[in-house]
């Protein structure tokens, strides 16, 4: 399949030749890749996809770059897991977890970076870079290593050790900036003006963001080519939420789904909830906030795609809600205890909001609900450190075992697990 040759402005429709450009010269709107959906609808697309690799690249015809086999880390095609125990706890009979902790660098960011990295090669960059809340730096460092590019990744001060060390392992140039993510992002936009570097989420954003569509494609395919009734998606810049919905809509355009009536719900941390606030106030305008939350991967105070998030959630009949730090930690434990999946704080946000919406009666009992769990718990161990029990310490004797352990194991688990 040929690489799409053109980009179009989301706001005014102006068309540009494909390249490392990201804002419309006429109106400063964001640019997006153009696809020929009618031509795609005439192809045996379902067969092409189903016989493709078990990664995001099975959807290559609907991505803005081709797979480059030599640099592929094979992100995506992660499990869609039926969540019967968590569903029972929340009163839902058809709940699924999209387990995107199972990616090469343990978060959904591998999807967007894989697409951006293929674009970086196509446009012959030598340095890959990003402004990151943590997971993006990790993914860029890994993919750049695999692609043989230099990496320079920028993070705000105060990130979790797990994210810093997991990123540093690939030996990128790792830069900690005094300030918030929004400061980091502003700096990176300035650097991108001066230096010809592939900032995956700045000048390559039209390519990067399209990778998020694969989280829509996969869920539809894994449900047997049908769209869920509800999805719950965490919001940082808002790109992921918008692109999952775009992915589902594209499957209708190419004839792989009959229709989509999915209600798209957004999840933010209460300590950084500018989109949830605008939603609650029925406002179009997103007021910047200064983040203060344990969900650092979602801590963006000026979300670039916030306006589009509001549009998608409102048009689909979804809601945007926020979770406190306490609820986030409870969400992490609830998912771990009921389903055996350990998520980072962003996943805790998703589960906390899923729970709140279930309690509000947003979902019908038998509707198909998919919650997106986008990152791995080992990266944010700090979040659970004070809410887990220390190991029971014993001497290596049967007597100690019987005295200190047996009763603990025999005790009934609480009703969540019944
Ligand atoms: C980046 C990130 C998101 C959300 O990303 P958007 O900027 O909204 O596209 C969600 N979960 C995790 C774990 C992330 O790292
Ligand atoms: Zn424009």
From TrEMBL:
Pfam families: PALP
Gene3D superfamilies in alphabetical order: 3.40.50.1100
Superkingdom of origin organism: Bacteria
GO terms under biological process: isoleucine biosynthetic process; L-serine catabolic process; L-threonine catabolic process; threonine biosynthetic process
Essential cofactor(s): pyridoxal 5'-phosphate
E.C. no: 4.2.3.1
InterPro entries from the UniProt entry: Ser/Thr_Dehydratase (IPR050147), Thr_synthase-like (IPR004450), TrpB-like_PALP (IPR001926), TrpB-like_PALP_sf (IPR036052)
Annotated CDD domains: Thr-synth_1 (cd01563)
GO molecular function ontology, one term from the record: L-serine ammonia-lyase activity
Chain positions found as N6-(pyridoxal phosphate)lysine: 109
Keywords recorded for this protein, A-Z: Lyase, Pyridoxal phosphate
Location of the Tryptophan synthase beta chain-like PALP domain: 73-375
Family: Belongs to the threonine synthase family.
PANTHER family in the record: L-THREONINE DEHYDRATASE CATABOLIC TDCB (PTHR48078:SF6), THREONINE DEHYDRATASE, MITOCHONDRIAL-RELATED (PTHR48078)
Protein name: Threonine synthase
């Amino acid at each position: 399949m040929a690489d799409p040759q053109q980009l179009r402005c989301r706001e005014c429709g102006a068309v540009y030749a494909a390249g490392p450009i990201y804002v419309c010269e006429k109106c400063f709107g964001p640019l997006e890749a153009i696809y020929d959906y009618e031509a795609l609808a005439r192809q045996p697309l379902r067969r092409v996809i189903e016989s493709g690799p078990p990664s995001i690249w099975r959807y290559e015809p609907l991505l803005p770059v081709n797979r480059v086999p030599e640099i592929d880390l094979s992100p995506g095609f992660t499990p869609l897991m039926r969540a019967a125990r968590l569903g029972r706890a929340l009163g839902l009979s058809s709940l699924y977890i999209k387990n995107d902790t199972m990616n090469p660098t343990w978060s959904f960011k591998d999807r967007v970076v894989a697409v951006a990295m293929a674009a970086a090669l196509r446009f012959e960059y030598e340095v890959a870079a990003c402004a990151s809340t943590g997971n993006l730096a990790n993914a860029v460092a890994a993919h750049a290593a695999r692609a043989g590019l230099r990496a320079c990744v920028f993070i705000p001060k105060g990130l979790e050790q797990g994210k810093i060390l997991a990123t540093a392992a690939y030996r990128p140039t790792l830069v900690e900036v005094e300030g918030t993510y929004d400061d980091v992002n502003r700096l990176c936009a300035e650097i991108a003006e001066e230096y010809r570097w592939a900032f995956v989420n700045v000048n390559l954003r039209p390519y990067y963001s399209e990778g998020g569509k694969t989280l829509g494609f996969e869920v539809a395919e894994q449900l047997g080519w049908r769209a869920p009734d509800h999805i719950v998606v965490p919001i940082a810049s808002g790109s992921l939420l918008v692109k999952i919905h775009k992915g589902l809509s594209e499957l209708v355009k190419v004839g792989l789904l009959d229709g989509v009536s999915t209600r798209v719900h957004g999840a933010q941390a209460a300590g950084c909830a500018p989109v949830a606030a605008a939603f609650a106030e029925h406002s179009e305008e997103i007021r910047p906030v200064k983040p203060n939350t344990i969900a650092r991967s979602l801590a963006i105070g000026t979300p670039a795609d916030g306006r589009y998030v509001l549009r998608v959630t409102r048009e689909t009949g979804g809601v945007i809600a926020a979770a406190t730090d306490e609820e986030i930690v409870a969400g992490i434990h609830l998912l771990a205890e009921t389903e055996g999946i350990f998520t980072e704080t962003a996943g805790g946000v998703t589960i906390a909001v899923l729970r709140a919406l279930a309690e509000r009666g947003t979902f019908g009992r038998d509707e198909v609900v998919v919650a997106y769990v986008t990152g791995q718990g080992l990266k944010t161990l700090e979040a659970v450190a004070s809410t887990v029990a220390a190991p029971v310490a014993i001497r290596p004797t049967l007597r100690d075992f019987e005295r200190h352990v047996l009763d603990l194991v025999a005790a009934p688990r609480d009703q969540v697990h019944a």
